[in-house]
Amino acid sequence: MKAHGVPWLIRHLAGDPAIEVPSPSFTLMQTYELPRFTVVHADLYRVSGASELAELGFDDLPAGTVILLEWPDRAAGFLPPDRLDIAFTLAPQLGLDYRDVRITGYGSFAPRAERIAAARRFLDESDCGDAARERRDAQERHRLGQKEVRTDNAGVSKLAYAAMLAKAVRKNVATRGSPGTGEAYCSFRVDAQGALSVESCKASSHAHEAILRGAIVATRAPPPPDGGFFASQRIHFQ
């Protein structure tokens, strides 16, 4: 992560591939005032105690600062109680370019970490784990007619409900056999009683579409969280 990952990440966050990203090995800390938030890149290898962290200005960092730490164990006990940690660790058995990533939420960020995990499970279980995703701010989501992502328990329960629907539909598809290699994608609604109705479909053939349509309509679900629910399902047939 250090040699190439940190400069790439800072340039990505800055939206400027040409921005200079010097190593903090001698200055110990580099600060970047970006439009959305402040980014701090710190190398704590030569830091021996909390007093030195205070001298570096860790106490004065604004709320919402993104901190990229090398030797993060030397900042133990000095980081804010409400934070989201993203840790990159080596996995030599999988190759030199592979990294394990662990996301941990502390304090008020704990529900956000749980929501990230729930979203990850939902995408994987819906066969959309490799789908391209992009960040949208609240104003753009509103313009597109999307609801803002919620960070409370209701948001997590909706993701869990969607994952449950995906599992139920896939189970019904499996009982209907396969017409051969292909795929089908359908969007559908769930009414207040838990009945599913298909809105639209795209498929490799009429046979693929018929199987997924039938599986969706045959699925019976518990009442959705807000009295109504909209979802989609993609099935790859072998």
Written overview of the protein:
- With 238 residues, this protein is of the alpha+beta class.
- The protein folds into 2 domains: 5-123, P-loop containing nucleotide triphosphate hydrolases (Rossmann fold); 152-237, Fusion Protein Consisting Of Minor Coat Protein, Glycine Rich Linker, Tola, And A His Tag, Chain: A, Domain 2 (2-Layer Sandwich).
- 31% of the residues lie in helices and 24% in strands.
- The protein has helices at 5-14, 50-56, 110-125, 138-143, 153-174, 206-218; strands at 29-33, 38-43, 66-70, 83-90, 99-106, 182-190, 196-203, 229-237.
- The strands form 3 sheets. A 3-stranded mixed beta sheet has the order 1-2-3, with no helix packed on it.
- Helix 3 runs parallel beside helix 5.
- It is elongated, with a radius of gyration of 23 Å.
- Residues 144-156 have low confidence and may be disordered.
The gist of it:
With 238 residues, the protein is α+β, with helices and mostly antiparallel strands. It has helices at 5-14, 50-56, 110-125, 138-143, 153-174, 206-218, and strands at residues 29-33, 38-43, 66-70, 83-90, 99-106, 182-190, 196-203, 229-237.
Instruction: List segments where confidence is low: pLDDT < 50 over at least 5 consecutive residues.
Output: 144-156
Distance between the termini: 38 Å
User: How many domain units?
Assistant: 2
- Sheet with most strands: 3 strands, mixed
H and E order: HEEHEEEHHHEEHE
The residue-averaged pLDDT reads 82
Strand content: 15-25%
Q: How many E-type strands?
A: 8
The general outline is elongated
Give the helix proportion (percent range).
25-40%
For the largest sheet, list the strands in their spatial order: 1-2-3
The appropriate CATH architecture of the largest domain is 3-Layer(aba) Sandwich
Q: Might you state the CATH topology name of the largest domain?
A: Rossmann fold
CATH class of the largest domain: Alpha Beta
Q: Output the number of helix runs.
A: 6
Instruction: State the oligomer.
Output: single chain
State the secondary-structure class. Answer: alpha+beta
Q: By CATH's scheme, which homologous superfamily of the largest domain applies?
A: P-loop containing nucleotide triphosphate hydrolases
- The radius of gyration is 23 Å
